[in-house]
Amino acid sequence: MATESAHEFFVASAGVAGALIGLLFVAISVAPERVLGPDAHEVHAVRASATLTAFTNALTVSLFALIPGFNAGGAATFVALIGIVFVVAAVLRLIPTLRDGAARPIELTFLVGLLTVFVLQLLAGIHLDDHPRDTGSLHTICILVVVCFLIGIARAWELVGGPHVGLWSSTFGSRRSSGDEDQRP
Hints:
By secondary structure, this protein is mainly α. The chain has one domain (2-183). It has eight helices and no strands. 32% of the residues are buried.
């Protein structure tokens, strides 16, 4: 079975996921009003949920892959399906916010990225489940676990109100002042 070849990766990944989930809870508890308070913006709640979903996805795949003789394809498939359902529910939850103009569609592109990860993970998981020795599908799942970490970290940064840092803003200097950042959901 190919999963054993990535054992060390999944051990490290499970540890990273656990630490990041803990830090996410600390970040939310430091400023709970931003996500959970009565004046919290819907986009912040979805960002927090998306972050937790990305980290939990990576943790679940990693932990199941560590079970001796277990094929990670089944776990990857299952959590990918849950992730796809999450993204659909998040979009439905945010439609009123978009209609009211309280959020801009560009601010929700992270959901497209997350959906892409989950669809690719679903396909790789199904393939690995059908072909347990396929290292290509296993590598795809491993890469997607890393991508889940990166997406989760980026969403957590936005969630705590960190300044926007990206290729576009770094290249063309279109950074917002901290006052503008506070106005943005």
